[in-house]
């Protein structure tokens, strides 16, 4: 009849195949996107705010929305979470501020250097000025 | 206090409220219909040891559990939607008992009827458009290379240019496609683009659209989609779906979520 109809993936697969490499008829991502992000929101008696679920938030918001969109939505707290970033954001911030200040003091001579070696060398240089050899 | 809750899947305007035979819910138990105030709620009993607040907090973080539950939820929604105008309810909406559901149907009656009459006789179709710049075929230029080196550089330059251009074109095409499809649909909704992790594809999704289409125009919609395919983009059609994207307005009037890429 309609030979030119595009290939349509049926969202409902009667026998969901185990998630594999291939494209299964009912794409789990599409289903998750719908059941978690669309449909009527009614406050049931069991109050579970999907957005309150931290890991779910990370996994799914990140998966469903692109990172940029998540940021737009204000869901970017993980960027400041030392545990999640694996780095201590505050220390990094402080480090960066110190480096900036140092760079400013030094007339932006070597703004990209690490704080410690730079400070060392500065000290060394001033020492060298006093006594020509070590 | 009961340790069994009532899990709500969907609310429908069903003349024949009986759920499809053998339809099972998130825990494998039978799905029941609760008819009240001219509406039907489709539910199943769930143990609160699994669907209580605390257990849910834990299990929702388990992707396997979540995937299974989402599929079961969706299966019920689809089965119900195949027979009557249906408003899918968001995942894990659980009540203490049936009485709470009856009172919900009563209190929100007008909202439900409003939404359900809007989607009656219509289906949701999903259309995704992917930009596939790497696969974008270059216009065949009658090349007369003076040397292999020059030919290579020219080719490389053209390839970079083509990539960028293909991206721009894909975004523009996505806009255009959304508009064209919107004209066949009764309503349309542009969702956020899915991340490659979810879509399972490397290409950037430039359109993640949902279209509410009259049932009898489903074939026409498919043909329009087919006609929109073109170079540098890939168009994927899914559906028909239960009207997930067009029943959210009961509580929150979500505006179009636009995502125009990076």
UniProtKB/TrEMBL annotation, chain A:
Keyword Cytoplasm set for record: no
Basic and acidic residues bias (residue ranges): 107-121
Chain residue ranges for the region called Disordered: 1-25, 107-134
Subcellular location: Gas vesicle
GO MF, one annotated term: structural molecule activity
Record-linked Pfam families: Gas_vesicle (PF00741)
Record family assignment: Belongs to the gas vesicle GvpA family.
Organism name: Nonomuraea turkmeniaca
Endpoints of the signal sequence: none
Keywords: Gas vesicle
Superkingdom in the source lineage: Bacteria
GO cellular component, one term: gas vesicle
Protein's UniProt name: Gas vesicle protein
TrEMBL record, chain B:
Gene Ontology CC annotation, any one: gas vesicle
Main subcellular location: other
Region of interest (Disordered), ranges: 133-157
GO terms (BP aspect): gas vesicle organization
Alphabetized UniProt keyword annotations: Gas vesicle
Cross-referenced InterPro entries: GvpL/GvpF
Location relative to the cell: Gas vesicle
Composition skew (Low complexity), residue ranges: 133-148
Family listed: Belongs to the gas vesicle GvpF/GvpL family.
Protein's recorded name: GvpL/GvpF family gas vesicle protein
